[in-house]
Specification:
By secondary structure, the chain is α/β, with parallel strands linked by helices. The chain contains ten helices and ten strands. The chain has one domain (2-279): Alpha/Beta hydrolase fold, catalytic domain (Rossmann fold), CATH 3.40.50.
């Protein structure tokens, strides 16, 4: 399905009911909007098993960002965090999703941070998974080296300096280091991928974005999920992210044996943490 949100049509899919019978009444459940990583890929590469399990307690909405998957491509001048954040607000308003719980993974977590800081009264809750408030190669590269040796660290360094010529090597050598659980071998083949969107963001805004100061404006309860073996959003990045959020609103859940794919690597534990967070007042 696609819906007009501002100047683009955004693709989305829905699992789970908003209303469920409970005795003589219909009980309303939270709506969780899932923001995938990338950018350039679609929602199917990260969320389908986890999202399906989450439907036991929530209505789940999968969204493809502008320029990604099955949503309208728009143009490079609009592939930026400010626009992607505005799209989340416009998408929820178009579907009349009130007080959404926005769960952003990796790049989607960057979008979620920007959205919640720009529109602090809009989300009901925020979940940030395997994401960072800024790019810190000096933290990333030693973890890539520890997990994949000097070759992995060198390819990561070259990729973040000049992504397009190094995409294939990064996918071949570095991407497998993102996870500690078996990968779904067909996930990338099934996905709709626009590498130019990822290349544009990595070579451009990702080099300089810094959301730390803006995070103080967030007003909703926030859960930060992180994996101690994540080479992209490292342990230090997770701590920095938590420290930048309002102390009275943030909860941190690190998972010691999980990588960047924390929602798969520690699925049962992450799902339990999210369910507990959703049920809290």
């Amino acid at each position: 399905m696609r819906v007009q949100a501002g100047d683009v049509r955004l693709f989305f899919d829905v699992e789970g009911s908003k209303l469920v019978p409970e005795g003589p009444v219909m009980r309303e459940r939270p709506t969780v909007v899932l923001l995938h990583g990338g950018p350039g890929v679609d929602h199917t590469t990260e969320f389908l098993p986890f999202g399906a399990a989450l439907t036991e307690v929530a209505q789940v909405v999968y969204l493809d960002h502008r320029g990604c998957g099955r949503s309208d491509r728009s143009g490079p001048e609009r592939w930026n965090l400010e626009t992607w954040a505005d799209d989340v607000r416009a998408f929820c308003d178009a579907l009349e999703i009130q007080r959404p719980v926005v769960l952003g993974h990796s790049f989607g977590g960057m979008v979620a941070q920007a959205y919640a800081a720009r529109y602090p009264d809009h989300p009901g809750k925020l979940i940030l998974s395997s994401t960072t408030a800024r790019l810190r190669l000096d933290r990333m590269l030693p973890v890539f080296a520890r997990l994949g040796g000097a070759e992995a660290a060198d390819i990561a360094r070259r990729f973040f300096a000049d992504p397009m010529p190094n995409f294939n090597d990064y996918i071949r050598v570095c991407l497998p280091l993102y996870r500690q659980s078996p990968a779904d071998e067909g996930a990338l083949e099934r996905a709709v991928i626009h590498l130019d969107v990822g290349g544009h963001f990595v070579a451009g805004e990702m080099q300089t974005y810094d959301l730390r100061a803006e995070l103080a404006r967030i007003r909703c309860p926030t859960l930060v999920l992180s994996g101690d073996l994540d080479p992209f959003a490292t342990v230090e990045d997770a701590r920095e992210l938590v420290a930048a959020l309002p102390r009275e609103l943030v909860q941190a859940r690190p998972f010691p044996r999980a990588g960047h794919a924390v929602l798969d690597d520690a699925r049962a534990e992450a799902l339990a943490a999210v369910r507990e967070f959703l049920s809290a007042p």
